[in-house]
Amino acid sequence: MEEAGQVNQDLKREHQQKIKNVIHEVGKVVVGQDYMVNRLLVGLFTNGHILLEGVPGLAKTLTVNTLAEVLKLDFKRIQFTPDLLPADLIGTMIYNQQKAEFEVKKGPIFSNLILADEVNRSPAKVQSALLEAMQEKTVTIGETTFKLDRPFLVLATQNPVDQEGTYPLPEAQVDRFMLKVHVDYPSKEDELEVMRRMANMTFQSDVQTVLSKEDIFAIRDEVNQVSLSESLEKYIIELVFATRNPKEYGLDQEAQYIQFGASPRASINLNLAAKAVAFFDERDYVLPEDIKEVADDVLNHRILLNYEAEADGVSTHEIIKQILNRIQITK
Q: Going by DSSP bridges, is the β-strand pair 153-158/113-117 parallel, antiparallel, or unpaired?
């Protein structure tokens, strides 16, 4: 038994080292976006889709492209445009003249890793087709339903600035994303490094493949084994309920701005994301700080604010910060 336990510990340490290697390989190409890479890996190892939001030029697409190279997974990039059709995403039935019958031509959704670039630029029918794939892990073409290969992960980007010609994502679809990550500008030092690299026209950086499918599934099992105490489970529930009934928690000022609180998916994803962060820090147990670290990314797109909040310039980030300050951990 001791030998088996030691083998498991050695394997876990090997996987944790591989995660560091993934971050290192991505860092060869992408500068100053360690936070975004961390959150993408949280989604990968907890089977959660990620929505990246940020202004153009922050290397969102480049980061996902590079990560796909480091992982031994099938990868497709889909540029969402107003004229995109569901068939362009999932595939369609085509007529084979030689066989005199219809056959299925599969679309780019049949991959392990999907980059849905500027996902809010396509109409509702396309987003609905993506939603089925995200939630059910299946695709229906004609009368046939296909199961998608595992792992299946959607990494979507959207631009919050230029809203002309966009279709806001329905709340039901946004809720399917485990995390909504706000990508910020790099620091002065990082931007200086980016400028120097890109100004050097001969700059090339080949990345090495680090993780296979088997590694990903093994790491998912190890993340799942990270322990979460009962008091922290209750803490997660209190945080989520505070978004629904803020007055009961003494958050009277915030209550006037919240239209709808977070769904039960928020509780599930806070649990999973906190375990992943703990595993990355080489711990087999979750700390309160792990939950607080991922709270904004899990909750910010699940709290719907009213017009008063928009008029007063109040954001979900501020409300989440107040909730974290108010809710205490009870034993």
A: parallel
* Close Cβ partners of 101 (under 8 Å, ≥ 6 residues apart): 95
User: What 3-state DSSP class applies to 128?
Assistant: helix
Residue 125 and residue 66 share a domain: yes
- One-letter identity of residue 102: F
In a shared domain, residues 62 and 141:
yes
Residues 128 and 170 in one domain: yes
- Residue 201 pLDDT > 70: no
Half-sphere exposure for 260 (CA within 13 Å, toward CB): 10
DSSP β-bridge partners for residue 176: none
Cβ atoms of 246 and 289 within 8 Å: the answer is no
Would you say 156 and 49 are in contact if contact means Cβ atoms under 8 Å apart?
Answer: yes
Predicted structure pTM score: 0.88
Q: Cβ(145)–Cβ(22) under 8 Å?
A: no
pLDDT digits (tens, 9 = 90+) for 146-181: 888 888 889 888 877 656 666 777 777 788 899 999
Query: Domain span at residue 127?
Result: 2-201+211-217
How many structural domains comprise the chain?
Answer: 2
Q: What integer pLDDT is reported at residue 203 of this predicted model?
A: 61
> What stretch of H or E contains 293?
helix 288-299
Which CATH number belongs to the domain containing residue 194 in this structure? 3.40.50.300
Report CA Rg, the chain. Answer: 21
CB 284 within 8 A of CB 253: no
